[in-house]
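hey
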């Protein structure tokens, strides 16, 4: 028997008796951005989380949200049919590995990036610009400390600690770095809020999603800009696979190749000379 879960209007999930779960629940509540909780939004959030976390972490986020939903919906959560339908709904949300091949519709062209920046505040526009010219993960960007930034004439080198504490270095122009310093006035981190706290990853996600839907008619995330950077380096500027893989912090070149390089020929490749 199939059950259809209908959740009463609620605009945030309640915290539970697990500190780690509460971290994930708070991040989800930021992602909600005053929208009512629905399974479609939960599914979208977990789908977005897959881009940034390994499957075991996404499974933990899923468990946290499920526990909070049970607590948050009071009388409904004491109904046997509701609980059965809840299990069915959450079980239908898969968190395993997915096809990571990046196709053209998942990246932004330079004009689209400029359109996006023009629709954002100066601060968010700078964040978008940095993401698009470095290929950084958003978690890496908000974690940049001023002590990690070192200048050399017209270039500033930024030491990054990525997934698995893997270290690498990216670079931006001195002019861009000074523009960020002037705008954000960070004391400890390169990117800080007006209260001098690190930016929230969910806040950046939310604002980019809203701007993307409004001015580009598509759902985007910070990772879209990372994909765009890699695609541009490999397929437009023809940079080496190994160089791009190292620069963006992939654990192996095979990951970069699987995501960004098409392994199949299309008819146009075969018949190009004959057309």
């Amino acid at each position: 028997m199939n059950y259809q879960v209908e959740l009463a209007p609620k605009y945030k999930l309640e915290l539970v008796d697990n500190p780690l779960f509460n971290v994930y629940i708070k991040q989800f509540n930021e992602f909600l951005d005053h929208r009512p909780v629905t399974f479609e939004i939960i599914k979208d959030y977990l789908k977005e989380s897959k881009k940034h976390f390994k499957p075991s972490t996404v499974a933990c986020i899923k468990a946290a949200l499920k526990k909070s939903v049970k607590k948050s919906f009071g009388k409904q959560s004491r109904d046997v049919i509701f609980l059965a339908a809840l299990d069915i709904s959450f079980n239908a949300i898969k968190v395993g590995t997915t096809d990571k091949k990046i196709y053209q519709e998942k990246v932004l062209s330079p004009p689209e990036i400029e359109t996006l920046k023009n629709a954002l505040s100066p601060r968010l526009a700078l964040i978008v610009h940095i993401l698009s010219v470095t290929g950084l993960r958003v978690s890496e960007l908000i974690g940049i400390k001023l002590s990690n930034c070192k200048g050399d004439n017209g270039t500033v080198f930024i030491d990054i600690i990525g997934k698995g504490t893997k270290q690498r270095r990216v670079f931006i122009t001195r002019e861009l770095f000074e523009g960020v310093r002037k705008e954000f006035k960070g004391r400890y981190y390169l990117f800080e809020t007006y209260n001098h706290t690190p930016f929230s990853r969910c806040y950046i996600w939310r604002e980019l999603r809203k701007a993307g839907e409004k001015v580009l008619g598509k759902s985007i995330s910070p990772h879209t800009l990372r994909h765009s950077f890699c695609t541009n380096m490999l397929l437009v500027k023809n940079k080496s696979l190994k160089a791009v893989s190292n620069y963006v912090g992939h654990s192996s070149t095979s990951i970069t190749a699987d995501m960004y390089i098409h392994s199949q020929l299309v008819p146009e490749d075969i018949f190009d000379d004959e057309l």
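The mean pLDDT is 82. The chain has two domains: 19-91, 104-260.
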